[in-house]
Amino acid sequence: MIPLDIFADPVCPWCLIGKARLDRALEARPGHAFVIAWRPFQLNPTLPPEGMDRQAFLRARFGTEADRVHVPVLEAARDAGVTLDLAAIGRMPNTFNAQRLLFWAGLEERQSRVMSALMRAYWREGRDVGDAATLADIAAEAGMDRALVARLLASDADRDTVAAAEAHARERGIKAVPTFIIANQYVVEGAQTTEFWLKVIDDLAS
């Protein structure tokens, strides 16, 4: 088995597209050797815990380009067969608690299922994935214990662990997402194509 570590943030559009492209390759090669682990990395770690209005965030970050920033994303999403509903998204969340949820999901071998649920909730349903109750609901949808997750989110459980893991990633030189590390040594940045991943899988198999 070959570890595939993916540094990602569920509110990163290129992480969504990159996951969709990778998923296609994995579905086409069901005998692949990858063991996938999602690793924490926040695009916007300085956001307040409650997040902020998404349009205000985009204007603050991109200024007059705010209205056009998603044009290439929409084009890539369409090509990848990914459905987005940007009009439904009202908040730009702080995703630290979402990363905590992914950490716990990893203990139950449900990480990919939870990441899919987080991305669907944000990009297709416009839900606030920084809100604790919403995260508990998403955990339940992915087969986790809602009450347990709610209790954990209300506590400081694993805050230091997740923060240290992200800090370590930045110290290693990871500066953008998605970033993939194959077999603990090969670094691949960006939302690679399905064809790229098919070739990687086939090369590793041979």
- Profile the largest sheet: 4 strands, mixed
Task: Provide the succession of SSEs.
Answer: EHEEHHEHHHHHEEH
- Overall number of domains: 1
Structural class: alpha+beta
Looking at how many chains there are and whether they match, the oligomeric state comes to: single chain
CATH H-level superfamily title: Glutaredoxin
Indicate the CATH class: Alpha Beta
CATH topological fold name: Glutaredoxin
How is the largest sheet built, in terms of strand order? Answer: 2-1-5-6
Radius of gyration: 17 Å
List the SSEs and their pairings.
Layout: E1 2-8, H1 13-28, E2 34-40, E3 52-53, H2 54-62, H3 71-80, E4 91-92, H4 96-107, H5 111-123, H6 132-141, H7 146-153, H8 159-171, E5 179-182, E6 186-189, H9 194-205
Parallel strand pairs: 1-2
Antiparallel strand pairs: 1-5, 3-4, 5-6
Describe this structure in words.
The radius of gyration is 17 Å and the shape is globular. With 206 residues, the protein is α+β, with helices and mostly antiparallel strands. 50% of the residues lie in helices and 13% in strands. It has helices at 13-28, 54-62, 71-80, 96-107, 111-123, 132-141, 146-153, 159-171, 194-205; strands at 2-8, 34-40, 52-53, 91-92, 179-182, 186-189. The two termini are 14 Å apart. The chain is built from 9 helices and 6 strands. The protein has a single domain (2-205), classed as Glutaredoxin, CATH 3.40.30. Strand 1, helix 1 and strand 2 form a beta-alpha-beta unit. It has a 4-stranded mixed sheet. Helix 1 (13-28) packs parallel to helix 3, helix 4 (96-107) packs antiparallel against helix 5 (111-123) and helix 6 (132-141) packs antiparallel against helix 7.
